[in-house]
Design a protein that fits this description.
Elements: H1 2-5, E1 47-53, H2 56-64, E2 69-77, H3 86-90, E3 97-104, H4 111-120, E4 129-130, E5 133-134, E6 140-144, H5 147-166, E7 175-178, E8 185-186, H6 194-197
Parallel strand pairs: 6-7
Antiparallel strand pairs: 1-3, 1-6, 2-3, 2-8, 4-5
């Protein structure tokens, strides 16, 4: 019963698992597709964006295929438990969502283009699920790294909400919060660039088919 409850309700800090002071596993040094470091250090001039849009296997591939993305990695964000494991996150007892960290060159790909890809690559109206994947770890989220990102994310949400409503969809449930105080914990090595290592692996990512009215061009669906 407790497990079932936390698949549909976020735990409080007091209810969350205790976690640990350090990661319980190692993370690979480099991106298997882009060849650049996963954990940094990152070159000057690059920026970071964090997104949650369902199962992070397919979500990460959406971003690493985007020109201007220097590296990407998957992890857990927005919860209470420090240094969680995949099994702990999937239990619903940590409060995290599956997230993708995107390190990008804003001179090549502006943040608004990443936002457009984010909105069009999943259904942001589904609450604690994404397609057939159910649980709080699949909720839609944007964690911002500056006031400029926060404003852009909120503006894009408002614009997309209007066109979704016009297309008959329900309201957006995406949480948009500062990344400060919501650390990104990298996931286990086998999750990193999963669909590069397993090209026929599971990908639960799918959009609404409604174009988001920001950015340069409609993202591939």
């Amino acid at each position: 019963m407790l497990f079932s409850r936390f698949k549909n309700q976020l735990p409080t800090p007091e209810e969350a698992l205790e976690g640990r002071p350090e990661r319980a596993f190692t993370v690979p040094d480099r991106h298997t597709v882009l060849g650049n470091p996963l954990l940094g250090p990152y070159p000057d001039g690059l920026e970071i964006a964090d997104f949650g849009l369902g199962c992070f296997w397919g979500a990460e591939r959406k971003f690493w295929q985007t020109e201007g993305v220097w590296t990407s990695l998957v992890g857990y964000q927005g919860g209470h438990t420090p240094n969680p494991t995949y099994e702990e996150v999937c239990s619903g007892h940590t409060g995290h969502t599956e997230a993708v960290r995107v390190v990008y060159d804003p001179k090549v790909v502006p943040y608004t283009t990443l936002l457009k890809l984010f909105w069009e690559s999943h259904d942001p109206t589904q609450g604690f699920r994404q397609g057939n994947d159910t649980g709080t770890q699949y909720r839609s989220a944007i964690y911002t790294h500056s006031p400029t990102q926060q404003q852009a994310a909120e503006s894009s949400r408002d614009a997309y909400r209007t066109v979704l409503h016009n297309a008959g969809h329900s309201d957006i449930t995406t949480e948009i919060l500062p990344a400060t105080g919501r650390p990104f914990y990298p996931a286990e090595g086998y999750h990193q660039q999963y669909l590069d290592k397993n090209p026929t692996g599971y990908c639960g990512i799918g959009g609404t088919g409604v174009s988001c009215p920001i950015g340069i061009a409609k993202a591939d669906g």
